[in-house]
Design a protein that fits this description.
The chain is an alpha/beta fold. It has helices at 12-22, 26-48, 68-83, 102-114, 124-127, 152-163, 209-212, 271-283, 298-304, 325-332, 349-361, 375-381, 392-402, 445-459, 464-486, 500-505, and strands at residues 6-10, 59-64, 88-93, 119-121, 134-140, 167-173, 192-196, 199-200, 214-218, 234-237, 260-264, 288-294, 309-313, 338-341, 366-368, 386-388, 403-404, 407-408, 413-417, 423-425, 430-432. It contains 16 helices and 21 strands. It is elongated.
């Protein structure tokens, strides 16, 4: 099975060795630094849209170390000042101007040349006065070259920056200063960390999550030709995984060309979840969708979305799908290419018994979500191809049924482990998605992710991992667009659906 579009995650030592190999002289290093500065700047400007966009007269605080990380930060500022004529940069040379290495010095000269009247060099004592206000603070002190322990003066500077109330948006380049193979007790606390060229292992570690904030990957083309001997147990997903979905479809095709997804879900207690999943499945591009839902909802749902084949099913006394539903499923799924089970299902024991029976009889790949994520259901599915989409609590519930020690018991599975940094794994390789954010922290967003994964799987039922990874990236990129368009707060979950189309149109953009 081919590896989904992604880049390897390397340790700090491996990243240093790789950069030394491909950036073989100062000219190559400068080219990469300039690309990083531009790419990170544009990514910051895109993410700033979630809180209204960078002000036209923004003040930037640039914490510049002596090496390439400091140079990256200075070129980020140069790019932003070039695009914002009213902006001003305050540069703090954290180790003094006389200790800047040649490329960092060149980057400072480029910034001063770019905006001579809009760049000020100040010591930290002046730049971080309580009356100072900054729209953006850029951390370029150490990057992945950090080696613990942090010296006392820099530690005090980082603590002062972390406490400062006047910095609206905090961006770290590569790694927050103080995060590394061994991290400092008090690292820089970023809102976003922009990994340039290579994602380094420490940004994925749970103990560093509060310092890293939200992870973004700025692809500089370092892995355009990736050798087979690079470590590949962790990888980061890239937007080009969605590119085939944005291409022209064959003219000689019909609805059967794009698969048939069946969805089993809904209950009297949770009538909306299955609708969100079905709507997302429709947007995934699948050709046919059949939905098995409680009988009382089928006419209303059909009036709203007549393109779906709604099948009204008997229910238990508590309003969940009754075991007799299995008869309807047997007669209507002969040509199914995938099935999604779980959104809004509820936890009635009789309904869970129905799910066990469906799973036991299934001859097509499955997506399990929400209340279908039960140990007894997992025990039935281990010998079949399936995707499951648990959040942290659901994962803890089913983990004992999925693993024997560290070994995933399923031969054909893709686990979508939802969270602030969603991870997809087949038990061998983990793929991290640097897309999405707190706008997804709403009821219903997981139902739409399950619907996307189901619809994509129905179209390519032989590739579980691709469907799961594509679903996660598409969902996350749509969330980014939603937050940038309407903010993180005043939105409804279903508005995510309207961003799925636009998310495909920018799949080849490497920085945002």
């Amino acid at each position: 099975m081919p590896v989904p579009s992604s880049a390897p995650v390397l340790s700090c030592a491996e990243a240093g060795a790789w950069e030394k190999k491909i950036l073989h002289d100062e000219a190559a290093e400068w080219t990469a630094m300039a690309a990083a500065g531009r790419g990170i700047a544009h990514a910051i400007l895109e993410d700033f849209r979630e809180i209204g966009g960078l002000p036209a007269v923004a003040r930037l605080l640039v914490l510049a170390g002596k090496g390439n990380n400091g140079g990256d930060a200075l070129l980020v500022a140069a790019t932003i000042l070039a695009e914002y004529p009213g902006a001003h940069a305050v540069v703090v040379p954290c180790f003094g101007l006389d200790r800047l290495r040649p490329l960092a010095r060149r980057a400072l000269d480029a910034l001063l040349s770019q905006a001579p009247g809009r760049t000020t060099i100040k010591p930290a004592t002046e730049a971080l006065g309580h009356d100072q206000r900054y729209a953006l603070g850029v951390d370029g002190i150490f990057g992945y070259q950090f080696r613990a322990p942090m010296d006392e003066a820099t530690g005090q500077l980082v603590e002062q920056v972390n406490r400062h109330p006047g910095i609206e948006f905090r961006a770290a380049i590569d790694l927050p200063s103080g995060v590394g193979a061994v991290s400092a007790p008090t690292p820089f606390r970023a809102d976003f960390t922009y990994a340039a060229g290579i994602v380094k292992t420490p940004v994925l570690q749970a103990g560093n999550a509060a310092a890293v904030g939200r992870l973004r990957y700025v692809d500089l083309g370092f892995f355009a030709t990736e050798p087979g001997d690079l470590p590949a147990t962790d990888r980061v997903l890239v937007p080009s995984i969605l590119a085939p979905l944005a291409e022209l479809r064959p003219s000689l095709s019909d609805k059967r060309t794009y698969g048939h997804l069946c969805v089993v879900g809904g209950s009297h207690s949770y009538p909306g979840a299955v609708m969100l999943a079905v709507r997302a499945a429709l947007r995934s591009g699948t050709g046919l969708v059949t939905a098995f839902v409680p009988e009382k909802f089928a006419p209303e749902y059909a009036a709203t979305h007549p393109e779906v084949m709604w099948v009204g099913c008997p229910v238990t006394a508590s309003g969940g799908l009754a075991p007799a539903t299995i008869g309807l499923i047997r007669t209507r799924t002969a040509k199914a290419s995938a099935m999604l089970i779980g959104p809004g299902l509820a936890a009635d024991p009789a309904t869970i018994a129905l799910v066990e029976q469906i799973v036991a009889e299934a001859t097509y790949p499955l997506v399990l979500d929400a209340d279908a994520l039960r140990p007894e259901v997992i025990a039935r599915v281990l010998g079949k191809p399936f995707i499951c989409t648990p959040h942290a609590g659901e994962y803890e519930r089913i983990k004992p049924a999925l693993y024997a020690g560290d070994r995933l018991l399923a031969a054909q599975a893709a686990l979508v482990l939802k969270g602030p940094l969603t991870r997809v794994t087949d038990g061998r390789i983990s793929y991290y998605s640097p897309f999405g954010g707190p706008v997804l922290a709403r009821g219903g967003s997981g139902d739409m992710l399950a619907g996307l994964c189901g619809g994509l799987l129905a179209q390519q039922p032989a590739d579980l991992l691709l469907a799961a990874c594509r679903g996660v990236v598409w969902h996350g990129r749509a969330a980014d667009l939603l937050a940038r368009t309407h903010g993180q707060v005043a939105v409804e979950t279903s508005e995510l659906l309207e961003q799925l189309g636009p998310a495909l149109k920018t799949t080849l953009c490497p920085t945002h």
